[in-house]
Amino acid sequence: MSSEKTAPAAETREFQAEVKKMLDIVINSLYTEREIFLRELISNSADALEKFRHQRLLSEEVFDDHLPLEIKISADQEQQTLTITDTGLGMDRGELESNLGTIAHSGSRTFWANLAENQRKDLNLIGQFGVGFYAAFMVAAKVRVQSRSYRPEEPGHEWISDGTGTYTIAPCPGIRRGTKIILELKEDAGEFADQERIKQIIRRYSSFVPFPIKVADETVNTVQAIWTRSKNEIKEEEYQEFYKYIANAFDEPRARLHFSADAPLAVKALLFLPQENIERLGFGRMDPGVNLYCQRVLIEQHSKNILPEWLRFVKGVIDSEDLPLNISRQALQDSALVAKINRVISKRLLKFLAELAQNEPETYEKFWNTFGMFLKEGAISDFNYRKELAGLLRFESSHTEPGKLTSLSDYIARMAPEQKDIYYISGPSREAVETGPYLEAFRQRDLEVLYTLDPMDDFALSHIGEFAEHQLVSADRGDLELGEAAKKEDQDPAAAEKAAAALPPEEAQALAAWMKEVLGDKVKEVKESKRLTDSPAMVVNPDGFLTSSMERVMRASGQQMPDFGGKNLEINPGHALIGGLNRLRREDEDLARKITAQIFDNALIQAGLMTEPRAMVGRNYEILARLVGRGPADSA
Ligand code: ADP
Prior knowledge:
Elements: E1 11-14, H1 17-28, H2 36-58, E2 71-76, E3 81-86, H3 93-101, H4 106-114, H5 123-129, E4 140-148, E5 157-161, E6 166-171, E7 178-185, H6 195-205, E8 213-215, E9 218-219, H7 236-247, E10 255-261, E11 267-273, E12 289-294, E13 297-300, E14 315-319, H8 329-334, H9 336-359, H10 361-381, H11 386-392, E15 396-397, H12 408-414, E16 422-426, H13 430-435, H14 440-445, E17 449-452, H15 455-464, E18 466-467, E19 470-474, H16 493-501, H17 505-519, E20 525-528, E21 537-540, H18 548-556, E22 568-571, H19 576-587, H20 589-606, H21 613-627, H22 632-635
Parallel strand pairs: 2-8, 12-14, 16-17, 16-19, 20-22
Antiparallel strand pairs: 1-6, 2-3, 3-7, 4-5, 4-7, 5-6, 8-9, 10-11, 11-14, 12-13, 15-17, 18-19, 21-22
Helix pairs in contact: 1-4, 9-10, 9-11, 10-11, 10-15, 19-20, 20-21
The structure holds adenosine-5'-diphosphate.
Residues 44-45, 48, 86, 88, 90-91, 99-100, 130, 132-134, 179 line the site of adenosine-5'-diphosphate.
């Protein structure tokens, strides 16, 4: 008597919509490099074997414990079939349905749902997401999957589909643990029934699979853990092959770090920086790219524990013989040793990036343009590496040419002798920053200002706080002390003339008090500016904590914010508009009030903070109507 449960008979089901779309693309568009289907299937088998190896350490009883862990491939010229068999952990009925009928990862689901026609042929991009199992339909007219789980009570099943919309699942008694995939090859895919061709493909794509891959009892792959060998024995091509294997990539890595340490921890790491950043292309959050090994045995694939989350773009392996082999997921998370390896390697990697920036600035700059967002994320989310990360940040500045970047260290090297702080100002573009009011005072004193053009920049800098004992200060702070000494206008006769025409201090103060009354709760204070030279007014942040850019981002993400009550408005008593306003408020207070509100709104726009333009536009028209002499005041 069999101990297997009685299962329902054959059942036909529809593929999930995204799978249908993916299959349509796989079957009809991806004609180049069809041979990668084998790499995908072998990699699934290897995953299943790794998972089984781990599961066996944790479970009391597994089915077919005696089977060797391997992948067997047989090609049948006569039948025109190719069969891939593994002794991995297998799938039960439910797993066959959900694994081979849906796309689980939400990022790739969105990717497939949105993939535009013209991108369909971009194999490189698609390769990053992996068509995985479904690649089988590039070469097969029909795919049969026979699988039996490692769990002793689960019976075997067969899954069959021609990839055109439905699949069938039926019981399949008497099979061994693991998965057998039988490809009934398409007419034009006969080459894949040829044993020699299959061996060639395995050598090309799957040399590093850590289980034997056998074709007619011959092991084709050379099972080797490249990271445990010494650097000078490894050829450049071997590194590149390994990268392609581990990162599922078609291209070459941007840079590589291979190192080993014995004390305080025994650890070996082989890490790569890839070329592409798919998160930047908008396809959701990527999984971590580093696998954790203990003495060449995989402990955790795409490990969430071995590096901080913001280093998820790094691909490669980390191997430590200090870890216990049968460590569980939970124990990995809680392990002090894992945390320690995490710190050691993160530091080493950041040092590697600093060296790259030093020795190959152009390579580093390209890396920064592609992956800088992750380092900023680290600066914001991780307290442990702020100093190292600060050194890696890059910005445009008032002293760089457009498009050229500077580091904080280079900024410090250019600082005036009496300058203490590092200044930055945000804006949507270089042009917007340079025509806005905030730079005026800095330009006048020839002080350099970093341009934080990415919304994440201000968060990163405000978290970092200081660098090499210099405070990082946003130029839209209210309480800036820039000093008078270096002011250029002292030598400029035109500026001196302007200063003479400015409102006298007591008039300016009275005007400011009146404007505050007009604006009410919208501002905290209205003050005479010590900074403005060319613009009539600007808003500043009195507390110096939240910059306008940060406020904008937080509003955009739906966070509740006070309604500008925290801002100060600074006015320029030397500006003709401000002088004129002071006269007007005695002659035509109503118009002066409107103009005051308009000045404030203009200043908000320049700070990037205008959220509701309707009232502003209405008022603006009223002012314009008065100007052309047909306003309601005249007609009344
Ligand atoms: P991915 O491998 O990226 O998750 P696939 O479409 O290749 O996507 O496979 C989907 C799922 O099917 C896998 O995650 C795995 O759970 C399961 N699977 C595929 N092939 C096998 C296999 N040979 N043995 C066991 N499970 C498998």
